[in-house]
Write a structure and sequence with these properties.
This protein is α+β, with helices and mostly antiparallel strands and about 190 residues long. About 25% of the residues lie in helices and about 25% in strands. The chain has a single domain, classed as Alpha-Beta Complex (Peptide Deformylase). The strands form two sheets. Strands 1-2-3-6-7 form a five-stranded antiparallel β-sheet, sandwiched between helices. The protein has a two-stranded antiparallel ribbon with strand order 4-5.
Length: about 190
């Protein structure tokens, strides 16, 4: 499956809430979109990717978390919604739409998410730690919220000059031109 170009900060598709998926309308296209999303995310070493990050206004995201003691956790979430939240954590976070930029973001330490899987079956996920952070990050994307929107106002102001510099570099980036075998390309996270 092809690697897709990842939309970068400043592109309008990242600022808008995505539309819910109708399985009947997309049943033939959905498997290909999901495969492209996993291939794209894997090629750049990401943990999660939402459909609007590849230019599609669909309430769809994929998450892949590496586990040492068992198989990697690879999840497809269609029309996900945050059902419960608890606790607070503040950790460094990055985003594929902001390559090379990291910031400390406050998130809930535990969440419950309800969604459908790629077959249209309902699923419920309880998560904490990195998995909780990844779920919240991707759900934010689907609601048109990027991780820097979660920063305090003064932090966002301080980031402005850095973002302007990075934006010009990001315009030249196109992940779809990466070699399909180049997993985890250095400097693109």
């Amino acid at each position: 499956m092809p690697i897709r170009r990842i939309c970068k900060y400043g592109e309008k598709v990242l600022e808008k809430k995505t539309r819910r998926i109708n399985f009947r309308e997309l049943k033939d296209e959905l498997p290909g979109i999901i495969a492209d999303m996993f291939d794209t995310m894997d090629a750049v070493g990401g943990v999660g990717l939402s459909a609007n990050q590849i230019g599609l206004s669909l309430r769809l995201c994929v998450i892949s978390i590496k586990k040492e003691d068992s198989d990697d956790l690879r999840i497809v979430l269609v029309n996900p919604e945050l059902a419960e939240k608890d606790g607070i954590m503040s950790e460094e976070e990055g985003c594929l739409s902001f390559p090379g930029l990291f910031a400390k973001v406050k998130r809930f330490s535990k969440v419950k998410v309800r969604a459908f899987n790629e077959k249209g079956l309902p699923i419920e996920l309880n998560a904490e730690g990195l998995f909780s952070k990844a779920l919240q990050h991707e759900l934010d994307h689907l609601d048109g919220v990027v991780f820097i929107d979660r920063l305090p106002f003064l932090s966002r102001l301080k980031l402005r000059p850095v973002l302007m510099k990075l934006k010009s570099r990001w315009k030249k980036m196109d992940e779809s031109k990466l070699n399909a075998g180049a997993k985890g390309v250095k400097g693109v996270k």
